[in-house]
From TrEMBL:
Protein's recorded name: Class I SAM-dependent methyltransferase
One Pfam family it belongs to: Methyltransf_11
InterPro entries assigned to the protein according to its UniProt record, in alphabetical order: Methyltransf_11 (IPR013216), SAM-dependent_MTases_sf (IPR029063)
Keyword Transferase carried by entry: yes
Domain Methyltransferase type: 57-154
Superkingdom of origin organism: Bacteria
One of the GO BP terms on file: methylation
Keywords, comma-separated and alphabetical: Methyltransferase, Transferase
Species this chain originates from: Orrella marina
Presence of keyword Magnesium: no
Length: 218
């Protein structure tokens, strides 16, 4: 295991990224909550408006901002967050109406399965933390729990990596290849890269959507 990604605490090996989020949970909570979810996700709100609220999974749910937003508009939300501190802050925010669990990609072990497959899966600022060699397994796992008519939203981060939070290069083309391999359609929901909502000049974002074959974005 690489020392750049994992560290030892006593007899336990801990993911460096999760440990970083755990140690700085309140700072990230304040940062995330400084921008409304509907503003952060403006590029795919039109997609959301076309969907009938059902079961939603927020992967890497962080402070619970997005989970709470989806819950308010009628979705039955499961929030997966591997940082214990962020998960507790998120649970305090959403209350019992959102189901929280300790699960992370690529395998999402620990995910509490819903009564049926998810109709919406959101990966906001998560994909860049996955090593490229783990992404096919992660995508196959997501495909396996997404309903055939469901929608997967992924926000892709472009810009300088943060040494405290290991990040890896992303591309829309990679997600498109993975989508097609699973028999899904792929859609880039923005032309070019959008500016960062937290006003970090070195960071840009692109939102992509994976859905059933023949599905067209609004």
């Amino acid at each position: 295991m690489s020392g750049k990604t994992w560290i030892w605490i006593g007899e336990r090996v801990i993911d460096k990224t999760i440990l970083h989020y755990d140690q700085h949970a309140r700072r990230y909570q304040s940062q995330y909550d400084s921008v409304a979810a509907a503003d952060v996700h403006a590029e795919w709100v039109g997609v959301l408006e076309r969907l009938q609220p059902g079961y939603a999974l927020d992967v890497g749910a962080g402070s619970g901002r997005d989970a709470a937003w989806l819950d308010r508009i009628g979705w039955r939300v499961t929030a997966a967050e591997p940082s214990p501190a962020l998960r507790e802050l998120g649970r305090q925010r959403t209350g019992s109406t959102v189901q929280w669990c300790d699960a992370r990609l690529p395998g999402l072990e620990g995910l509490a399965a819903p009564a049926r497959e998810y109709d919406l899966i959101l990966l906001s600022a998560v994909w860049m933390h996955l090593k490229p060699e783990h992404r096919p397994r992660a995508f196959a796992r997501l495909d396996g729990i997404l309903s055939r008519q469901g929608v997967l939203i992924i926000t892709l981060r472009f810009g300088a990596p943060d040494p405290d939070r290991p990040m890896y290069a992303v591309s829309a083309q990679e997600v498109e290849r993975l989508a097609h391999a699973c028999g899904r359609s792929f859609h880039a929901l923005s032309e070019g890269l959008a500016p960062d909502r937290l006003r970090r000049s070195e960071v840009r974002w692109q939102t992509v959507c994976v859905a059933s074959e023949g599905w067209n974005p609004p």
